[in-house]
Amino acid sequence: MKKMWAFGLTAVLSISLLAGCGGGGNGNGKAASSPDDGGKASGSSPAGSAAAGDSGSGSSGGAKKFAIVFKNTGNPYGEKMMEGFKKAIEEKGGEAILKAPDQPTAEAQIQMIEELISQKVDSIAIAGNDPDALQPALKKAMNAGIKVLSLDSAVNAQSRLVHVNQADPERIGRTLIQGVSEMIGGEGEIAILSATSQATNQNTWIEWMKKELEDAKYSKIKLVKVAYGDDLRDKSVSETEALLKSYPNLKGIIAPTTVGIAAAGKVLTDKGLKGKVMLTGLGLPSEMAEYIESGVCPWMYLWNPIDVGYLAGYAAEALVGGELAGKTGEKFSAGTLGEKEVVADGDGTQIMLGDPFKFDSSNIAEWKAVY
Amino acid sequence: MKNRGRIALASETAETAETVAAGGASAAAPKRSASANIAKFRELGLLAFIVLLSAGVQLRNPSFLTWENINDIATNTAILSILAVGMMLVIVTRGIDLSIGATLALSGMIAALTVKQYPGANPALALLIGVGIGLACGAVLGFLVSKVRILPIIATLGMMNVFRGLTFEASGGKWVSAHQMPDSFKAIATGKLLGVNHLILIAVVIYLVAYFFVNHTRTGRQVYAVGSNPESAAISGIRTGRILGLVYTVMGGLSGLAGVLWVSKFASAQGDTASGYELSVIAACVLGGVSIAGGSGKISGIVLGSVLLGILNNALPMIDVSPFWQNWIQGMIILVAVLVNALVKRGIDRNHLMRRRI
């Protein structure tokens, strides 16, 4: 009897385990869709069954299918992005498939791309967990006639038709330096607290920050260190504490990552360094509301993730509809965002959302409820 | 050291009836292998290593050995060390618990949601809720391991995903942020009593209780007996199932407590809070000389193991090495510790064989 029990339970557990890692798509897609209208969205994306047959006729009639794959589940930022994507797709009468893996790994995303290929979707928009590792899977998708674009976090130029950039990396980098310079009065030591040392986004922004610092007007500002908190709370806290101790004259911290800036805000609050060390960067309004209201972080920036998703939605529609091929100089209409242009980005092309948006004590109250 | 001797003796007598009495063995004057001698000093070795490491870091960055930094290390290590107590008990019974990161996230999230909903509630209530949820999670694991007899690594791996899923479900994928938590809740982790941070105090109390439990209660000794040799423990009348259930429940309860402390400390609850943290806790235990094969492990060892990891986490950012080397150094230190552990164990086993009269 006991053996039977044990066997049964082991079987159930191992199946649930397999489902947990293997099946990825179904359950995770559900968890990732925004809570408000999640039921509907996930209901319409039964990964397994849709692959069967009739739905393969997506291109010949019925609603076209537009998939979005974010980095991982449970990220409010990603959920807002998927919400915007879904809104754009539904405005044009398409069907949105929202997906995200449990863990932010390229492997998990590759599996999802494979599923989407066999599901015969018309377009895949992806926020890549790795710029290069996804190339084979995305190439395969493009060979199958699927229009591939990346958003938020770019994949390399060979594995996409176009990239939708949250905001111009150059504008972000330069704006952050201008912001911190204003906070510290144009003089003193500053440090950067980034995500992981290999994060594509952060590294590009940091490059631009360094370029902006070359300007003669910042001659009295010294960038002493770039620290990496790996987007982990405990590590970001340790790195911030280490910065404060190693550089006692530190005047400002720029944290261009949501976990990092909140962790730094907490450390500065706990150590009573408000007004002594200034904090700015890119953060989620809800996470940062406390520190912006208290003055630890006078202001910070971020783009509007709903708009990023929305723009990607319209770009995907335009790619599938043939109005866009991803070539430099092309223009298309992006709903409420107006007309957007495709510009060169290294050896690929991209579409820019615009300047980052500034959050300060005057508008944080209204935004903290949004995301 | 006394501890170790007792355990060794227990497993010896249990394993074979022909084991030679201690007197006879010393008369035969067996050659003790060098590594067995190290066993006596293993914790001293760890301590020396910590001192050397601290001195080295201090040379590179003079702000390392300051009161403020030591206080930071202790505060940042408190949660890890609390979890290490539970993990040690589990590992001593030849088990492992991979679900603690998820349990921590779940109880932290529920506690955060509670204080978000009822900002006026007493923070003690949040602690109680967190511990309660942790105990429940642990009890489920204990049941699976002891009654259903699923291998601990499988059971906890499975439940890890279940608990993570529940966390996402409970929060709807949203984070609970600093501005949604009342100050009284955040004060759990930032408050001080007699100048000492609450987290440190809680960890110290837990260590005192654990020390007493492990060394001076019958149940505590039975945990080791079950780990040394489950069959003979069962034969000698120890209810092994109960002990297994107990250690996983205690582990769950400590994870629940740690979850509330974590959320209070960082003033943020996420679905992926402490993802992968179980590995750090296991590393702290292994560094502290807890044998993965079960049966041995000491409170003083895991204190040092946690402190060493805490110092590593604090010092590596301060000595200004590239992030790639940080991981490398951390990994190498853990590897060396495990290597020493294996060598010592081999030495002890060889000694036992030599002392056996055929």
TrEMBL record, chain B:
Pfam families: BPD_transp_2. It is found in: Cell membrane. Keywords: Cell membrane, Membrane, Transmembrane, Transmembrane helix. It is a multi-pass membrane protein. It comes from the Bacteria. GO terms for cellular component: plasma membrane. The chain crosses the membrane at residues 41-61, 73-91, 98-118, 124-145, 150-167, 187-214, 243-262, 274-292, 299-316, 328-348. The keyword Manganese does not apply. GO terms for molecular function: transmembrane transporter activity. The keyword Transmembrane helix applies. InterPro entries: ABC_transp_permease. PANTHER family: ABC TRANSPORTER PERMEASE PROTEIN YPHD-RELATED-RELATED, RIBOSE IMPORT PERMEASE PROTEIN RBSC. This is ABC transporter permease. It comes from Cohnella xylanilytica.
